[in-house]
Design a protein that fits this description.
Blueprint: H1 2-14, H2 18-42, H3 53-74, H4 77-88, H5 94-116, H6 122-132, H7 135-149, H8 156-183, H9 193-212, H10 222-226, H11 234-265, H12 282-287, H13 292-319, H14 329-353, H15 359-377, H16 383-391, H17 399-408, H18 416-444, H19 452-484
Amino acid sequence: MAVPSWCQAASAVLRQIEPVVVLEQLGSTLFDTALQMVVKDRCANATVPEMSREDSQQKAMTDFYMIYNLIIRLTPILPSLLLSRFSDRGWRRAPVVVPLSGYLLNRLILLLVVIFDFPLRVMFGAAVLFGLSGGYCAYWPAVMTLTSLGSTASDRSKVMMRVELLYGIAGLVGSLVSGHLFLLYSSNLGHGTILLALSTLLHLLCLLHSIFLLQVKQVSDIETEDKCHLISPACDEARDEARDEARDEARDEARDEARDEARDEAPVVEAPVVEAPVVEAPVVEARAGKDMATMVLLFAAAVLYTFAVGGAVEVLGSFVLKAPLSWTATQVGYGNAAGCGIFLTSFLGVMALRRCVSDVALILIGMLSFASGIYFMSFVTSTWMFYLARSLNLFALIPLPTIRSLLSQQVPASSYSTILTSLQLALKFAGLAYIPTFTKIYQSTLHWFPGFVFTLSSAVTVLAMIPVSIIGCRSRQRYETIRGD
């Protein structure tokens, strides 16, 4: 009897979105390390007038990443919108399956570039194909949509962070082994072939899983139907207080009516009794309903924070390959693993703090964690200092999943995909701004302060904390108003 139960449980797990997330992230981390090292090797002989060899290599690498990442962020805009519409009309798996096919093609093309020694420019075409499939802009909102549908409103932040945790653990494992796998080679094909072949295989398995095994699960939740959208733990308290008050007043009204009926039977003329209106729980709903100002502030915070994080990460890969760090492939893998480890610490932070503080406070804690760590990164001159700076980013991944959770609670289930894809598109437009901005600033400051871009990133993160703080003040005022009433 135990064997069928175990098989049934395993089958249920395989039909969820988590295995797709794990397989995709394992393949992506292997690909990221391979791409980073291939670009370094191809740009090793770059020469720029009036620049040293190392600075010329840095400029060639950052120019490639700027164009490549701009293509990846620009081309998915229309396809992701179309896929989100399909999702909200019932085709929930389409925004998962189609982008995964683009992932597979992108990884396969880099494998061909390494095997047949094609020019690095071929990867620009691979980026176009990746973008036309929707890319990450369609894939990750689809993952969050399926996660939202399969969870209750009260547990949504925790469930989303659990998905982020699996995403981070898979990235951690993939990054740790990616540097070692890159050094392996098959016959005369060169370094990176085994690594890229494994990455392509993982994406193929991921695509097949999403086509044949993935199922859409939707949880019916009373809290969702009531549309309680307050963004602080005070929401539950205010709603419970309103319901208790409604119950008490209804009981008092029934008692008064019974007393009035008894008096009516006696021959006594009394003034008409004016009944007090009953305060019901839907009053909380009216006050806690869809708040466009809150949604705008959440979008602003997400865009500013993505601008800061994305801009820093954009140049971090090139920064660690230059002196004084001068990392090898193995060290690059370990560095990527340190970045993925933040998924684990962020998840543990949410689990430990979510019962003590509101979602707004969680976002602020995460932003403060990133701002301090990336500011310290400005002055990194050795590998141990790099890991020390990374250790300050323990909670840096809390803000965006929490913002997605709050946004999903502001709209009905039929609009989950649309609102989450809209957020992802806003982040893509932020990418169109920060990629050239941070790249050019980094190239201009290579001589006197290469870490200046990290200081700039820290300052923008502080700006992102302002709209979040406004949301916290507004939610506190709303709660005090409800209690006063």
